[in-house]
């Protein structure tokens, strides 16, 4: 199934927007991390509706909608994000962006500030949404990987500054979950690499109550008899 305009698949579930570049779209492996994430959500009995203007992936990806744009940098996502959020009203946003800023050597030193601005625009347009911000995955080229690590090093402080201002923003350490051995072409993950991303997103989502709604059974960490905090 090729990329194209969204057919707006919907099951009435919690609206989740996978947001980013080709790594969200699933270049080399159509559907990318969204396949493994969808399957984990289904196994957990979560009812989730992926949303976005784009559409691609295989049949075992139960909902093909997303907002992954191959080749796009942070500024290009930022130029469109407010309209997308108004159109698709996500409850939860999964953001992995910055790889193309590094690959294109596009004002890399100011990329963290551009990301901070993008996050501000997301939280302004969707103030009740949980926004999960991932560090970008490794790159095989050593110079580019060094730039990616420098970019990633700024993310914890950016996310914490949003949290300190009362925003629902969460850091996902995606970079540490993959190695260059998980890349098919030095940039994009293999199917196994994408599944590692899926596992990281799923764990992050499960750690934030409400970001996925309710599964079929309560988490083992929640006990009705626990003392109130």
TrEMBL record:
Entries under Pfam families matching the protein: Lipase_GDSL_2
SGNH hydrolase-type esterase domain residues: 19-195
Record region (Disordered): 209-229
Source species, domain of life: Bacteria
Taxonomic source organism: Microbispora cellulosiformans
GO-annotated molecular function: phosphatidylcholine lysophospholipase activity
Protein name per UniProt: GDSL family lipase
């Amino acid at each position: 199934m090729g990329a194209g305009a969204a057919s707006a698949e919907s099951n009435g579930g919690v609206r989740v927007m996978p947001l980013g570049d080709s790594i969200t779209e699933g270049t080399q492996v159509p559907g990318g991390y969204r396949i493994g994430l969808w399957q984990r959500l289904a196994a957990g009995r979560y009812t989730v509706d992926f949303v976005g203007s784009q559409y691609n992936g295989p049949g075992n990806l139960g909902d093909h909608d997303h907002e992954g744009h191959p080749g796009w940098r942070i500024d290009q996502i930022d130029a469109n994000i407010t309209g997308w959020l108004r159109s698709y009203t996500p409850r939860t946003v999964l953001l992995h962006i910055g790889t193309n800023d590094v690959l294109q050597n596009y004002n890399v030193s100011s990329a963290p500030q551009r990301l901070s601005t993008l996050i501000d625009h997301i939280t302004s347009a969707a103030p009740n949404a949980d926004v999960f911000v991932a560090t970008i995955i490794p790159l095989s080229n050593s110079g580019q990987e060094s730039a990616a690590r420098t970019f990633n090093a700024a993310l914890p402080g950016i996310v914490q500054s949003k949290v300190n201002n009362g925003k629902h923003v969460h850091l996902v350490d995606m970079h540490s979950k993959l190695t260059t051995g998980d890349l098919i072409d030095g940039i994009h993950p293999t199917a196994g690499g994408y599944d590692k991303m899926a596992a990281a997103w799923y764990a992050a989502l499960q750690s934030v109550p409400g970001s996925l709604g309710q599964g079929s059974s309560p988490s083992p960490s929640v006990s009705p008899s626990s003392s109130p905090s």
